[in-house]
Amino acid sequence: MLGASFAICAAVLADLGRIVTHGDDPRGALAYAPLNADTRIRAIVSELSQAQAAHLDRVARLAERGTELHRADGRFDSILGILAHERGAVEAARAHFETALAKQPAERQALRHLLVYDVTSGDYERAARHARRLTVRSGGWGDQRQAVLAMAAIDEGRRALIEAFASDDRARSGLISAVMREKGPMVASEMVLAFHEKGVDGLGGSIGAISRRLIREGQLEAALILDRVTLARDRPAPTGFVNNDTFAYRPTGSAFDWRTQGQRGVALDWVGQRAPDAEPPEVTASFVRIGFLNTPLRLDNLTQMLVMRPGAHRLEVMARSQDLSGPAPISVILGCTNGTELATIPLDPIASQWQRFETDFEVPETGCAAQRIHLTNGFVPLSWSARYSGALDIARIQIVRTR
Prior knowledge:
The protein is an alpha+beta fold. Among the domains are: 166-230, no CATH class; 266-401, Jelly Rolls. The protein is built from 14 helices and nine strands. It is elongated and about 85 Å long.
């Protein structure tokens, strides 16, 4: 009986999944078009589906003839490699796969089999290069996924993957996502930290996904460490409990940075230049503008996860209005992630000049390991007579410890 390799061959080699359907006569077609490579591949797939030794001999003859007629087509060498692999002739199989790659560097069957061979022999650098090439050019790892993930769990294998995937954003993101799904967020976190140490940028999406998964699994400290260690190189470390408290930088995607969501009736914009009337002097050169598009809405946006120690704190907000009108004030609300509210600052009344709002609050000793801060207008009726228009500018949201 055929092994798993033949099933893979039948599914992949037939020109991206173009498998023979009932009523086809691939052998008859080959008789009419013996020089057509795809016709020969379909004939081979038909023979493989028979799963009998006589048919395997015919497969070998068809593939050998294919290597003679189509010298630049590596698929026929891969078929010979699969046949040799099934016989247990690993060295002969490897030679066929190497020949296939020499002809076609992205030949997926050759890459997938050589990937497993190289992982088994401990040649992780070569295996990592095969894995990256499969990710970028040849439709993924297929049944060799576990071999790649096994590498990610080994120090030497992980280093090889870091080196091979560092320069390709899409391939790197796919690798990290697969590692997190199969090996868990801690292994994925170690991989992200290694990419960061290597100087790789563009990790924000992966960091955010991993940190949120860690938080869901109760590993809050690990999530916070990942966020702080991988802080963008052009960003200073947070001076208080709120990250990016002056909105000087675009959100990274981390759970511990500002997160926004698309919401009908709201337009958020990071403004990077200081306004001429930016007074008092505490206002920095940047702010976030929340524009309202004259529609009814229930605002729940501009969110950040925090980790504060128990004790007394002060929440400070610097904001101004640009012809803001609506049925209820916009508020900055801080609460524990279990729903317990800690502090609320209604931005009302608010003028066109910068104003400071503040309130003191206490973080309890228990039951509030993590906190969430966000903007909301409460439960305003969604009525056309209760619309919001104008804009709200926020230059700072800061939390300081008072004792």
